[in-house]
Design the sequence.
């Protein structure tokens, strides 16, 4: 993992979704994971170039604050390759309806 890792932790699902939406719209980043921690805490993670991730996290913070509570955020510029093993991944859902 040579790119930066950006994280935003919110209280509640809605602000985390709002943060994720704002982050991927604000910069060229990839949404890489979401983790429901417990006690209503949800963390969303993105990856991309350092500048893009910093910009995206800033946009995500503002968006999440508009609809809920932000607990924490952080950008790791070049995380060690072993960090990859502990990161959750996004599970794609089947959005097609059966007819």
Sequence:
């Amino acid at each position: 993992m040579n790119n930066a890792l950006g994280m935003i932790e919110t209280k509640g699902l809605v602000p985390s979704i709002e943060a994720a939406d704002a982050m991927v719209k604000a910069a060229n980043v990839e949404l890489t994971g979401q983790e429901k921690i417990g006690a209503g805490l949800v963390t969303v993670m993105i990856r991309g170039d350092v500048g893009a991730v910093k910009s995206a996290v800033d946009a995500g913070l503002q968006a999440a604050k508009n609809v809920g509570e932000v607990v924490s955020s952080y950008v790791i510029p070049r995380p060690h390759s072993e960090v990859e093993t502990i990161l959750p991944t996004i599970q794609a859902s089947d959005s097609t309806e059966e007819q």
User: Anything to note?
Assistant: The mean pLDDT is 90. The two ends are 41 Å apart (CA to CA). The first helix runs from residue 13 to 26. The beta strands are 4-11, 29-38, 41-48, 69-76.
